[in-house]
Each structure stands twice: as C-alpha cells, then as structure tokens.
Design goal:
Elements (H helix, E strand, L loop, with lengths): L1 H53 L13 E5 L5 E4 L14 H9 L1 E7 L5 E9 L5 E9 L1 H7 L1 H31 L16 H33 L4 E6 L4 E4 L1 H7 L16 H11 L4 E7 L2 E12 L2 E11 L1 H37 L4 H31 L9 E4 H18 L3 E6 L3 E4 L1 H17 L6 E8 L4 E7 L21 H7 L5 H11 L3 E7 L3 E8 L19
Parallel strand pairs: 12-14
Antiparallel strand pairs: 1-2, 1-5, 3-4, 4-5, 6-7, 6-10, 8-9, 9-10, 11-13, 14-15, 15-17, 16-17
Helix pairs in contact: 1-4, 8-9, 9-13, 10-11, 11-13
Length: 567
C-alpha cells in the first residue's frame, strides 16, 4: 500500500507537470499563430493595394526578406513568385487557400512538412481583376519549439520530480505506518485511525464466520471426495453454461481425458450423444443416452439441478456398460449362429427323409441318401457336443477333477488320432520337446489340443507340415502349434476365437467343422488360467501358443472357476 500511495503521488504530480507544460505551450502557440495570421493579413492587404495601383510591375523592384509572395492568375497559373521561378511552378488552382479566395475573397491554409517540424501558413486575397495574391510564411511547429526548450523543461521536471519523490515518500510512510501495525488476529485490539474502527469490527465478525464456514466446508468436501472417488461410475457437476465444477477420477478414466480446467465440459467430449444429454439436462429435462467411444460403450444419465424454477446446472453420471453390451451382442450372435448351423443339416435330413418317405427314390440311391442323412446327423451331434462343452466352460462354478497332466504325452495321443486325417493330405506332424507336466483337467486339455491340431490340418496346404513344440521354463509351460497353411488376414485375427466366426465361409464349408473349435480352445485356456496368443500371415501359416502354469508338487486336486474375461 505504501508503494501504491507513493506511485499515485508521483504519477499525479507528473501528470500535472505535463498538463501544465502542454497547456502553456498550447496557449502560447494559439496566441502566436493569431499574431502571424494578423501580420499576413495586413501584409497581403498592403501588397494588394500596391498591385491594384501599379499592376504586376510593382514586383520588379520588390524584395521580400521574411515572407514569400505569390501572384496567381484566375486560371491558377503563377504570374510571380518571390522565391522560385514562376514559369517552373505548377498550377495553383487546386490549392486550398486559392480555391477559398476565389470563392469567398480570401483564404487561409496551413501545410506541414514531412517531418512535422515546420509548417507553412498561407494567406490568399482576391484582387479586383480576379487574380489571387498569396502571402506565405514558414514557422516552427510545437514539436520544434518543444525540442528547443527540451533542456529547460527537463531540468524543471527533474527538480519537481525529486521534490515530489521526497514529499510523497514521507507522506506515504506516515499514512501507512499505523495500518501496518494492525493486528488482524485481534482486529478490535488496535489503536489506529478512528475511521478504520467499523472496518476492524466487521473483519472480526467475518473472521469468526469464515472460520466456522471453512470447517464445515472442509468436512463436507472430505465426505464428498470419499464418496465420489470410491465410485466406479463417472461423476460430473456442471453449471448452467456447461462449465465443469466438479468431477471424480472415474470420469476422467472413462472419458480418457487429463485433469480438466474450469472450462466447458463440451470441450472434453464432443460426441453427439454426450452433447445431447448435456443440452437436455440444462434445458430442464432428465436425459439418458448410450455413447460409444472406440470399443467401449457408456450409459449417460444427466439430471438438471434447479434453484427455485431456474436451472443452475446439471449432474452427469457415466456408467461403463461395455461388458454388458458385448454380452448382449454375443448372445444375439450366438443365437443367430446356432439357429443357422442347426437349420442347415436339419434341412438336408428333412429333404432326404421326405424323398425316401414318398418312395420316389430308386433302390440304388437309398444307400447314398442314408449316408447323407447319417453325415448330417453326425454333424448335428458334433455341433451339439461342442455347444455343451462351451456351456460347461461357461458355468459360473463347475468343478472338474484336476490331476497332473503330461502335455507331451497328451499331444502324442492327439497326433495318433489325427494321423489318418493328416495322411490323406500328405501333412507331416513333428512333435518337438520333452515331458512337461501341469495341473489341469485332462478332458478339456485333450479337446483344446485336438481342435488346434485338427485346424492345423484342415487349413494347411497339401503336403504341408504341422510343428508342435513343448517347452518348459521355470515359470511357464509353452505349447506352440505351428502350421504352413493358408494363414489368417490381420483384420480377422482378433475375432477368430469368437463362436461361429469364420474367416472364409466357403472354405470352411469344404473342410467341415462347427466353427466352435477355437472358441473351445480359448475358453479352455481361460479355465486353466493360461495365456493364449496367435501369430499369422496370409500364405505363410499360423502359430498358436498356449502358456500354462507348471505343475507344483504341493498342488492337490483343485476346482477351476470361470474367469470374468470369458467372451
């Protein structure tokens, strides 16, 4: 405050000095300018009288030492100039003072130099014959005068500022010293200016009130923070202009944004669904919508906040419903796919049976029709069995008898069952590795490896190879099934473990299968808490790797439960 008073005093004095100097110069300048105009007017009238009497010959012996005299004809051409050669001067008809003189009898104009340091004052007078007599004088402008008086002005201002500095410094210290001694912890126990007594009493009252309010606010803020920060749902509070007032960490994670500042919440999320619920809530309506961001789905619930009848803001709750949406999609897809897969063989069976029932089938075709019915029935049985296996793996709490299983030995058995199928296509199996034991359900593991090896045959090239590598480390048992087949395009690799998903449906119909093999592999891996990965390239083959936890001697028979990560 001391500095502020000091600066104010200095600034006031400085402004007064400048204003005084400007005012003085302004008055003096106007006075001198009027004097010059009067002198030009007198001189012009004197010269006009002489020219009227003697004509242009008056200028033969004329010598003007101070002012410039110009005689201009009615058409603007220069007849005489005391400074320059009249013949070389341009036409003056458009000069301001000349035009005014031709119109009104006399005219005055002022023209400044390019540097604004000099100006020319022109006084023009119309003669009786219509010609114009102009008298001009050059004078210094205010800028030039100021430049000439700069040194004395500087000394005057410097002296005034030094004096002001000393006086302002003392005055400001004298004013501020009692205020600086105030004890704001006990506002009423101060001996200072009488005018400050009401203020100090008010400060004491406010101090007590603020202390109580702060304690209450801290308590409420702590309670609010504990509640909102432990919510898995996103929580946003906005004002009537959609500016963000409060939020929790879950909201930032769900919207995938950094800690925002106090700006409009619409800047952080520009999705149409989000903007719609915000708009509806701020218009006074409760709003709900579903918003998709990437692969995630969110349920948005926005409620307006009223003060009397006016909307002063809104509360927005964001729920992550990604898993729920995915389950609904998978259920719908599964129902549609099962219906389609069951309908195809049943239609074939029904068709063949209907022909045989009508007796229109020749005896030599009965065996072929019976074989077709048998094949389609076997396909139905296989499909139903695969669905049952997936249902068992999807159970909330199903228990299988677990035991130590040697994966190398199990794979030998699987290969022996598939050797005939592989031989038909001249595909060679290579089992590489050694004994590797894990704790698991033999039935499920057998089904997993059988499906992997069966796919490696079905989608392989004629005369290709299937390498099965068993590798045990300290922390994992890895089983790698690698083929030299047709491969899987990159855009399909993330979905091949879905139920009934087929990369090439036409090829899948030729090789057979239910479309559930890799889904069973995935669910079996989840059931055994194993990691599954896939690498593939078109026309370069596919490699599926399963990583299991190795068998521990202290392990006993355990029950494995369905993981929440199942599809």
């Amino acid at each position: 405050m001391n500095k502020k008073i000091f600066r104010s005093s200095m600034f006031t004095v400085f402004l007064v000095l400048i204003a005084t100097i400007v005012l003085i110069f302004g008055i003096l300048f106007q006075f001198f300018e009027k004097q010059i105009q009067a002198e030009l007017s007198n001189e012009a009238e004197f010269l006009a009288l002489a020219v009227e009497n003697e004509g242009i010959t008056f200028f033969d012996d004329f010598d003007s030492k101070n002012n410039r005299v110009t005689l201009i004809d009615k058409d603007g051409s220069v007849l005489y100039d005391s400074v320059a050669d009249a013949g070389r001067l341009d036409n003056h008809a458009e000069r301001e003072e000349v035009k005014d003189a031709m119109k009104d009898g006399k005219g005055i104009s002022i023209r400044y130099s390019k540097t604004l340091t000099e100006k020319t004052m022109n006084y023009a007078l119309r003669l009786t014959n219509g010609s114009i007599l102009r008298v001009s004088t050059e004078q210094y402008t205010v800028i030039t005068i100021l430049m000439g008086m700069l040194q004395p002005i500087f000394f005057i201002m410097a002296a005034a500022m030094i004096l002001t500095f000393m006086i302002s410094s003392r005055v400001s210290r004298a004013i501020i010293e009692p205020i600086n001694r105030l004890d704001l912890e006990a506002p009423e126990n101060n001996d200072t200016y009488e005018e400050l007594t009401p203020l100090l009493k008010k400060i004491a009252e406010q101090k007590e009130t603020i202390g109580e309010q702060l304690a209450s606010a801290r308590k409420k803020q702590k309670e609010f923070s504990l509640i909102t920060e432990n919510m898995s749902e996103g929580f946003l509070v906005i004002d009537q202009d959609a500016n963000l007032l409060a939020y929790n960490t879950a909201a930032l994670k769900l919207l995938d944004i950094a800690a925002p500042s106090d700006k409009s919440v619409l800047l952080f999320c520009r999705a149409k669904e989000f903007r719609d619920v915000i708009s509806d809530a701020l218009s006074g309506k409760r709003a709900e919508n579903i918003m998709a961001r990437g692969e995630c789905s969110y349920s948005l619930i926005a409620n307006p906040v009223f003060e009397k009848e006016s909307v002063i803001g809104a509360v927005v709750v964001i729920l992550d419903i990604t898993e729920s949406e995915k389950r609904d999609v998978l259920r719908r897809e599964f129902t549609a796919n099962v219906s389609h897969e069951l309908k195809t063989p049943l239609t074939s069976i029904s068709g063949f049976a209907e022909l045989m029932k009508e007796g229109d089938v020749a005896a030599e075709y009965v065996i072929d029709f019976s074989k077709s019915i048998y094949d389609e029935a076997q396909r139905l049985i296989t499909l139903v069995n695969d669905i049952i296996k997936l249902s068992e793996l999807d159970g909330e709490s199903i228990s299988f008898e677990s035991e130590p299983v040697d994966l190398y030995e199990l794979l030998q058995e699987v290969i022996s069952r598939l050797e005939n199928e592989a031989a038909k296509r001249k595909i060679a199996f290579h089992l590489i590795g050694d004994r590797a034991v894990i704790t698991g359900v033999r039935k499920i593991l057998d089904e997993m490896f059988y499906n992997l090896c069966d796919n490696a045959i079905k989608y392989n090239r004629e005369g290709g190879m299937v390498d099965i590598i068993v590798n045990q480390t300290k922390d994992e048992v890895n089983v790698m099934v690698r083929d030299t087949g047709i491969g899987i395009p990159a855009e399909h690799q993330s979905r091949v473990f879905e139920r009934f998903y087929r990369v090439d449906k036409s090829h899948s119909k030729k090789v057979g299968g239910t479309g559930l093999g890799l889904a069973i592999v995935k669910h079996g891996a989840v059931y055994h808490h194993a990691k599954i990965s896939l690498e593939s390239a078109v026309d370069a083959g596919t490699t599926v790797t399963l990583a299991f936890v190795p068998y521990r001697l202290s392990n006993t028979t355990v029950s494995f439960f369905r993981s929440s990560t199942t599809s």
